[in-house]
Amino acid sequence: MSEDIDVSSRPVPTDTALLKDGDWLPSVNFNDRRPTVNLSGSGAIQRPTVKIDLLLLHYTATPTNDYALQLLTTPEGGVSSHYLVDGRGRIIQMVAEKHRAWHAGESEWAGEADINSCSIGIEIQNQGAALTRLPAYGVAQMAAVTELCADIVKRHKIHPKRVLGHSDVAPHRKQDPGAHFDWAGLARRGIGLWLDPESSGDNACPDLQEALLMDLQNKFVAIGYGLEVTGELDQRTVQVITAFQRHYRPSRVDGKPDFQTIRLVDQLLDIIKA
Ligand SMILES: [Zn+2]
Questions:
Q1: What integer pLDDT is reported at residue 49 of this predicted model?
Q2: By the number of CB atoms within 10 A of the CB, which of 5, 41, 146, 197 ranks highest?
Q3: Catalytic residue among 97, 108, 112, 123
């Protein structure tokens, strides 16, 4: 779709004032945003207009920044994101925000499956969980991520409940940006949501019967997670619990529906519905 575009001649986008000279490295991997198809409710509903209302955060899972850039900009890489924040906090733009970058892949949130069409994607240079220990994000890098998120959220009026990690929208196959990501720090700047795990009881695990599990699954669906309500602690449910914990209770990510996790789910729903 984009092979015939002369990337080098594309003008520098004016989306954000945070971009410095030379930090526009255009990718060939993009296309037009499409009206999003909503899978929930009675039949598919086409949104009347294309809308940018979700911010999706990733880690690159690459050993170096250069390798990440290669994947994110070339036809061989076949993927892209709007921005990359390197290890030192440099912000690089690769796709104009008006275009659809290719970062979410097979995903789902709040009944929508084409997350690329409604989102802006930020890749953060980090080796990811391929190593035994996920390397922490650096201070300068996290500061740059925060500034960029603040800028995007403000310009597009993105609701805090739609600032998400890749693992939230693809819990069956993704772990990024991982349990080390500072969601609490972002939330202090009004970006995304954060709960207080410490005030939410212990990690004891109740023996959830079918009705209670259905109740919990319904709550995850109401938050936005792509999940079938089965009344069973099936593989997908464990993956969604794991993704939720990675985001909101990173001190213990085990996929178990313990009391603390259940209370945090209730807290998050209260905030979203308020
Ligand atoms: Zn990702």
A1: 72
A2: 197
A3: 123
